[in-house]
Amino acid sequence: MIIAATLVGVTGLVFIARGDVWGHMCTIIFSILYSIVSVSFLYYGEFITYAFMTLPLAVISLISWLRHPFEDSKEVKVGHMDLKKWLFVLAGTAAATVVFYFVLKTFNTNNLGFSTVSIATSFLAASLTAFRSHLYALAYAANDVVLIILWTFATLDDIRYLPMIVSFSIFLIQDIYGYVSWKRMKKRQIKGISV
After folding, report:
1. Whole-angstrom Cα distance, residue 56 to residue 123?
2. Following DSSP, what letter does each residue of 129-161 receive, concatenated?
3. What are 24-43's pLDDT values in tens digits?
4. Contact yes or no for 132/64 (Cβ under 8 A)
5. Which of 68, 108, 154, 166 is most buried, with most CB under 10 Å away?
6. Cβ(110)–Cβ(153) under 8 Å?
């Protein structure tokens, strides 16, 4: 299950870095697999984040990306973040963080502080992805760092979770690539050049 989640997740990141809507199909599958793995180590924060936040936001992003192709290509049109969108994203991130902190505390979630930070960075990243912002990748990179820390704690208790550290290390590299790729894509689209 851990290896399957990793392979699906990495594949999704490659598609998303290219602005390809298939990345969200992979994200939906990854969210389900990762939720199951998270529950096995009592990382209820990760379960809640991916099952009830990342998964629905991946569906919203899928719809948004399908509605906003760049010209006639498979590539999504890079969005622009205005003040209204930023207020929505930041208010949503703050609200999700506060609400989920208390939910996670109720469930005695392992590593509550890092799990709460993971929720904040996940919500921020998923929201920016739905708005088609190139900054999504930086938020996901921050989330990857938090998840590497969380799964390192889990691996100290049970070596079976070592692939999750490897997985999120690969995700970190992919998200950095995604940021660079989307910056290029944005410049290309401004010039009106499609792939």
Report:
1. 11
2. HHTT-TTHHHHHHHHHHHHHHHHHHHHHH-GGG
3. 999 999 999 989 988 887 77
4. yes
5. 154
6. yes
